[in-house]
Amino acid sequence: MSYQVLARKWRPRTFHELVGQEHVQRALVNALDQGRLHHAYLFTGTRGVGKTTLARILAKCLNCTAGGRGDEGVTSTPCGECDSCLAIDEGRFVDLIEVDAASRTKVEDTRELLDNVQYAPTQGRYKVYLIDEVHMLSTSSFNALLKTLEEPPPHVKFLLATTDPQKLPPTVLSRCLQFTLKHMPPERIVDHLGKVLAAESVPFEESALWLLGRAAEGSMRDAMSLTDQAIAFGQGRVEHADVAAMLGTLDQHHVLALVEALADVDAARLLTEVGNLAEHAPDFAGVLDEVTGVLHRLAIAQMVPEALDNAQGDREALLALASRFTAEDVQLYYQIGIQGRGDMASAPDLRTALEMTLLRMLAFRPQGVPRPATTPLPLRGNSEGGTPQGGEAPPVGSQEGGGKSEAPRHPSPSSEPPAESTAPPPPWVEAEPASSPNPSAASEAPSPAGPTASPSSFREERPSAVTRPAESHSMEQEATPSGDAEPEPEPVSVPVAEEPDSAAVSNDEPAPAAVSDETNGHFSHSDWLACFETLGLGGLTRNLAAGCVVEKDDGERLRLRLDPTLSAMRAEIHIERIRQALAEHGITRRLEVEEGEIPASVETPRQQAERLAAQRHARAVEALGSDPHVQQLQRVFGARLIESTVKPAGDLH
């Protein structure tokens, strides 16, 4: 006997053998059991999902002579053994008229077909007209079919099938009971292929079935045909390497390697992986599509992990990979990937377009505040990157006026701790001075003297305007009316007096000292405030850490209390970055970040930065107010100083 292909050999012969399409199966079975039969059924869906198979099963249900209930009526469980069932399975049932509308589109063919409608069935209970690809009929053919389709004889049933229901006239759609068949998910295809190959005694690898399930694109018939081809290609076996070579598809391991390089922010590895892919001559546009598809699944894994499908057999790997990205990274990478896919048409070559798109993902990933123009992007593939791992932006507000730092950038482990920290202090005792921190207290501190005016600062005793840096606003001047127009005064630059090093830290704050387990057994809140600017945190991680205070440190576990208003930013990836930054400064602890109310008397790093910024601003305003040039402008022109536009020199970078 000649070989029968798997798609025909394993074609379902009853509703219960049907794989998938439960919504259609349930409706038809209930209608058959209750005797509520329509005269015209329309089955729609892509190729290979079971439209014709369903129509043939329904024809057997209408004409089975034995039936599952032991009578001669219509049944939902055809026996498959009576003459009618066997004839329908073998394609020789007289009363099942199958018509290929793609080859019989003329109105004459339709009229010839309808001439026999009035005659009673010869062999079965119903005369069934199965019209495949019905959308290919001409307009005249549809018009000839309409009247009969609406009111056929009681012994006639019309079963229509099409892959493009949009091309059917509304008059035809309104006369049919329509069932839309769904795509077959890869999981269902893989499960069915496994059962078929086990029954056929064909050895297989499950990963190879996932490749076949994806290549089938929702069509079970295509999956069975590809399986036949894979068996022949693999000499009786279905293995992953053979199927990948046969299909010419991209191995999913290469795609995951690219995404892992993105997670590690490793540009050199990224280009190496693209070079490895180029040896297999892949479709680089398809590679980018695969990468964006993985990013889409990573976003699902982060937001709704239980909704992540296992369509490619890599669900567990993606769940682990999703924890290495932030939500911002995934969303931006996906958007860049979609944009890069559209730019490939105008790129010099597809490989260049793929490399530039992947590098663009790293170049524009979220990094917090803008970094200086002279700082290179810190990719792991670039050994000269000068910023912390992960591309965190440098701390903002760490430079005071005159370029003086508020805290040492590289504390020395040998520096002496403050005298009051020789014993483990309470969590916030250092942050509770006699008077709570108040930015307005800066006005009570002595301010540095303003710069002395030089005789050459004025020409011909004309007052001059004070120039400010390019980023700041000019002072508002209200000139008094004058009868004689005077020449425009020549601007003179008046810099704000730089403060000495001792002014970099407020008088009520201890000087920052290096924190290590050797010099101090416990990590206090004052240590946290002192070393915060030296941790090198940036972006969302810095914002999260700036809202924390030290609650407890027992030498093994460091607990931080987080402001409840920042609870939405709490994520494991940020906590891990803070732990690594502390470990680099000698604080090796198991880090815990818990939400809780912070007392008003306790100062967080953010509040400390805001207070010091307010003090610098107050000193700058006072320095400008005491400047003789500014005072002369106020006397002569009635000018006034807009304090909100004043910025200390260190804040202009």
TrEMBL record:
Record's catalysed reaction(s): DNA(n) + a 2'-deoxyribonucleoside 5'-triphosphate = DNA(n+1) + diphosphate
SUPFAM superfamilies associated with the record: P-loop containing nucleoside triphosphate hydrolases, post-AAA+ oligomerization domain-like
SMART domains, per the entry: AAA
Top-level lineage group: Bacteria
Annotated stretches, region: Disordered: 367-522
Gene Ontology terms for molecular function: ATP binding; DNA binding; DNA-directed DNA polymerase activity; metal ion binding
Listed Low complexity bias regions: 429-457
Pfam families noted in UniProt: DNA_pol3_delta2, DNA_pol3_gamma3, DNA_pol3_tau_5, DNAX_ATPase_lid
UniProt-listed CDD domains: AAA, HLD_clamp_pol_III_gamma_tau
Keyword Repressor: no
EC number(s) per entry: 2.7.7.7
Residue ranges of every copy of the AAA+ ATPase domain listed in the record: 37-188
The keyword Nucleotidyltransferase appears for this protein: yes
The entry's keywords: ATP-binding, DNA replication, DNA-directed DNA polymerase, Metal-binding, Nucleotide-binding, Nucleotidyltransferase, Transferase, Zinc
InterPro entries: AAA+_ATPase, DNA_pol3_clamp-load_cplx_C, DNA_pol_III_gamma-3, DNA_pol_III_sug/sutau_N, DNA_pol_III_tau_dom-5, DNA_Rep/Repair_Clamp_Loader, HLD_clamp_pol_III_gamma_tau, P-loop_NTPase
Family: Belongs to the DnaX/STICHEL family.
Quaternary organization: DNA polymerase III contains a core (composed of alpha, epsilon and theta chains) that associates with a tau subunit. This core dimerizes to form the POLIII' complex. PolIII' associates with the gamma complex (composed of gamma, delta, delta', psi and chi chains) and with the beta chain to form the complete DNA polymerase III complex.
Function: DNA polymerase III is a complex, multichain enzyme responsible for most of the replicative synthesis in bacteria. This DNA polymerase also exhibits 3' to 5' exonuclease activity.
Name of this protein: DNA polymerase III subunit gamma/tau
Taxon lineage: Bacteria, Pseudomonadati, Pseudomonadota, Gammaproteobacteria, Oceanospirillales
